[in-house]
Write a structure and sequence with these properties.
Helix content: 40-55%
Structural class: alpha/beta
Strand content: 15-25%
Low-confidence stretches: none
Number of helices: 7
Number of domains: 2
CATH architecture of the largest domain: 2-Layer Sandwich
CATH superfamily of the largest domain: Ribonuclease H-like superfamily/Ribonuclease H
Largest sheet: 6 strands, mixed
Distance between the termini: 49 Å
CATH class of the largest domain: Alpha Beta
């Protein structure tokens, strides 16, 4: 008899639900987010376990890596965006999503996310951090642009804004408290630009274009 496990992962605890291929509930348990506890709960079912699925939440790395390190090969990561189309399959009394995830896996309709290789994950996350910093830098650039235009009618592009220094702001804006406000944006832009450059340098030293995605 094939078994399918779903793990509803939260910030502090997880809910494990196991179904057989007839959608009968075989096991359920709520536990703390502790790898040893989860492995211990899965151990009695290992011989018949055909797959384990958990949703791609913000904190899945430790659990996926831990399960893989302990020989769990049939691991699936559910795509939370694509999964909503199947929410009609949920039971009305389901508090947890563990059985719902296992249900989709049994039916072969689980929308899956990509389990990014552990060795490459840190670089990808570093690029995500760069995107986060760029977004925040852009908000400060727009704020400073608007301030200058509001007080002087001058419209400076983003490259010009990034090149400004304290003495430039004092000359352009003149009024003490307006200059102080502008300097807060300016210093933040300079700091974020420095961090973005550090990230870009580190990534460029690490990444290589893979043969199968080169354009010819």
């Amino acid at each position: 008899m094939a078994l399918y496990a779903g793990i509803d992962l939260h910030s502090r605890n997880s809910y494990l639900g196991i179904l057989d291929d007839n959608l009968k509930r075989v096991f359920k348990k709520k536990m703390e987010n502790d790898l040893e506890l989860i492995l211990e709960s899965l151990e009695p079912f290992q011989d018949n376990l055909s797959g384990i699925v958990l949703e791609s939440t913000y904190n899945w790395y430790w659990l996926v890596d831990g399960l893989m390190d302990h020989g769990n090969k049939g691991l699936h990561l559910a795509n939370p965006c694509a999964i909503k189309q199947y929410e009609g399959l949920k039971y009305t009394d389901d508090i947890h999503d563990a059985f719902f995830l296992a249900h989709l896996l049994v039916l072969g309709i689980l929308p899956e996310g990509y389990i990014y290789p552990k060795k490459d994950r840190a670089v990808r996350d570093l690029l995500r951090k760069r995107r986060f910093l760029v977004k925040h830098r852009s908000s400060h650039i727009i704020s400073l642009q608007s301030m200058i235009e509001r007080h002087t009618a001058q419209r400076l592009n983003s490259n010009k804004i990034k090149s400004l220094y304290s003495q430039d702001l004092e000359r352009i804006l003149e009024e003490e408290y307006v200059v102080l406000s502008a300097m807060a944006n300016n210093r933040t832009i300079k700091f974020l630009s420095e961090q973005i450059k550090l990230i870009e340098k580190a990534v460029k030293e690490k990444v290589k274009l893979r043969e199968h995605i080169k354009l010819y």
